[in-house]
């Protein structure tokens, strides 16, 4: 019963050191710096790729909404009616007789470079053309400045 009356004696023989030495902290800082130096260039170069991926996803969503619009109304919105016809009931020709209450998109997205998507109906090669002009906002370009078309998805 003696060991129960003095519970603090169980730990009396052990010495507990807490904290880190300056050398240990410097080693950890050096390792972290090395990791940042190796990983940061890869992450920074990926932001352009991420924006292109976001634009493609948004284009797919708009294409789906346009297809639903066509199923309900028998045609795609005209260029004059634009993509806004997916959010609010369009006026003008062709008439949207069976336009879905609430619309086909909650709002029109801008591309990742804060520009509007370009919509032309009828398009040069068929029903419509839908694209983002990329980072430079101009037709053509390379890399993240290249146009991203719904036809290439």
Automatic annotation (TrEMBL):
It is found in: Cell inner membrane. GO terms for cellular component: plasma membrane; type II protein secretion system complex. It is a single-pass membrane protein. Residues 42-150 form the Type II secretion system protein GspG C-terminal domain. Residues 133-153 are annotated as: Disordered. One of its GO terms (biological process) is protein secretion by the type II secretion system. It comes from the Bacteria. Pfam families: N_methyl, T2SSG. The chain crosses the membrane at residues 20-40. The keyword Protease does not apply. Keywords: Cell inner membrane, Cell membrane, Membrane, Methylation, Transmembrane, Transmembrane helix. SUPFAM superfamilies: Pili subunits. PANTHER family: GENERAL SECRETION PATHWAY PROTEIN G (PTHR30093), TYPE II SECRETION SYSTEM CORE PROTEIN G (PTHR30093:SF44). Belongs to the GSP G family. This is Type II secretion system core protein G. It comes from Marinomonas aquimarina. The lineage of its organism: Bacteria, Pseudomonadati, Pseudomonadota, Gammaproteobacteria, Oceanospirillales. The gene is xcpT.
